[in-house]
Amino acid sequence: MSKRGFWDVMNTLDRRIIFLILLICVTLPLLLNVGGEIPPTAPVERAYDAVATLEAGDVLLVSIDFDATSAPELMPMLRSVLRQAFAKDVRVIMLGHIAIGLPLGHMALEEVAAEYGKNYGTDYVDLGYRPGYIAVMIGMGREIRDFFDTDYQGLRVDDLAVMDGVHSYEDIDLLFGFEHGAVIDYWVRYAQARFDQRMAFGTTAVMAPDAYPYLQSNQIEGLVGGLKGAAEYETLIGHPGLGTRGMPAQQWAHLLVIGFILLGNIGYFVSRRNRG
Amino acid sequence: MKRSIPLAITFLTGVFLVVSFFVPHEPFGALEQRLLIWFSIVSGFTMLLGVDNLLRSHGRKIGRRNPGWWHSVVLLIGFAATVVLGVLGRIHHGSPFHMQSPFMFVYTYTIVPLQGTMFALLAFFIASASYRAFRARNTVATLLLVSAVIVMLGRVPIGAAISEFFPAAQEWIMDVPQLAAKRGIQIGAALGAVSMSLRIILGIERSYLS
Q: Would the ipTM clear 0.90, i.e. be above it?
């Protein structure tokens, strides 16, 4: 095959071949389970430290603002934060602003609570979803019960011991949001800027750049970004999970995309030069 | 009259909410809370509008036998089945979100995998696009391309294994040029939002009435 012929073939490569190579690059590392510990970076350490400052009986508000599209990135970090909180006997209150994603958070909550022998209503609660998240965020600054008078299954929150003395942001020691969209902006604008609520976030890798300004201005105390952030958090709590396991797949996918970019550009320049 | 009453309501409500944001004391605090509860209730009803729109639009497609009309049949059957299973979950388990309810079965084994699959397909298109479209055609495109490669390498362990330069450079890109651009966009968007809010409160912007 001539030089020109080779690059012509490469330039018109069937995209199904690209799909197949990516599939192999992602699935093989996952199946082989070759992940190692990922050293933590400063934003993740800050998020970990924010939870570490909580003491037994303190209240952690967990907000589920994602759905299944972002679950591979956000579920591992959610589990890690819950493990860290339950290990310290912190009370966990969960709610969410993406209705279709909230059951995912509930499943993680039940799973981790069972690991630590925690009881529903005493150690943790799932308040569920209420429409109009901006109104909910602002209104919670005055009285949570105005919006969440019952939990996700209709139990009165006044009957749940975990909610004793928890009425507004003043009674919440830390908010940890798991975000795949713009809800993070509203948490910062309304709960932090107006009510001075301490908060940290876990976001998808795509959303992390949006949260960097809040991190640099110290409006948020920590940031766990993407699958790498999840893997770093798992390193910090000493409990490797799906974040750590998924990193090799992400690594090979990144390398493949870089390879494709280089190959595509070489082909582009060679073809352009040959055309004169 | 038909326009001036809604404009007056908008003006009074807008001014009241701005004042109550800065003066949370009574009577503003309690009244603001009341309005927020109303907002939440009205937001709940918008879901009904969504359901109405969904059913009408797909009902029409089926009625007119538009191309792919059977997709709409599948959608409507899926919609009805999910509602029925949710109601059954409420009756038998006290909540559709009870882990043993049939709704959660559909959620876990249908909704979650379908959503995940749709989003995962993006990776294949990104890989294909990186090969076919991400070209260093000019200086700006080359800068973007180099930054993308550095960030991608800096965010995976092999980047640090090749050279400490990649994680450090990745961090610098995220902390300095990315942050500067993001802040500029955010400040611009905020100023635009303030300007648009003032126009609506003062009745200059009235397109929401039509």
A: no
